[in-house]
Design goal:
By secondary structure, this protein is mainly α. Helices cover 78% and strands 0% of the residues. It contains 10 helices and no strands. The chain is elongated and about 65 Å long.
């Protein structure tokens, strides 16, 4: 513990992030400050966590700051950040170019195994939304990839998709 604190106080980004986790229960303000310092040092996981923290905060300024940190983490190839940013761009009030960028980010995160990205793509294929044609086979494949990781929302969706296909075959 002593060495972790010393490394964090010296500005080591990973130590700051780990220290923030230990501080969370006892001193949430100091924990947030440690995450901020780690993000400012360029640690993608800290940038991603800072986005999540700021999105919980109220106000458009916090949302704007959160988006900036999310963009930075995604630019450094942080998988969950690319997935989250991709979904944000696909489903938000974005122009066509930004929506296409969002779909590209989401697909790349899914192709690298992010279960949330695969699940979100499955939903988009199932509904034929966000520039994707309705495709039951693609929806099932993406959903299965996510469900196979133990991602609970995908496991539930997989059951619903299978039941829906069975009803369609029975009709």
């Amino acid at each position: 513990h002593h060495w972790l604190v010393a490394a964090a106080q010296a500005g080591h980004a990973q130590a700051l992030l780990t220290w923030s986790e230990l501080l969370q229960q006892h001193d949430p303000e100091l924990a947030r400050a440690a995450v901020l310092r780690a993000a400012q040092a360029g640690l993608p996981e800290a940038e991603y966590r800072l986005d999540l923290q700021l999105m919980k905060a109220a106000g458009s300024g916090a949302a704007s700051d959160a988006r900036n940190w999310l963009e930075q983490a995604a630019a450094q190839h942080h998988l969950a950040a690319r997935s989250r940013l991709g979904l944000l761009l696909c489903t938000g009030e974005q122009d066509v170019r930004e929506r296409a960028r969002g779909l590209t980010l989401l697909q790349s995160a899914a192709d690298e195994g992010d279960p949330a990205a695969n699940w979100n793509l499955a939903l988009m294929y199932a509904a034929g939304t966000n520039g994707l044609q309705r495709d039951a086979t693609a929806a099932l494949e993406r959903c299965r990839l996510a469900a196979d990781t133990g991602f609970a929302p995908a496991m539930a969706t997989m059951g619903l998709l299978c039941a829906s296909l069975q009803r369609a075959e029975d009709a």
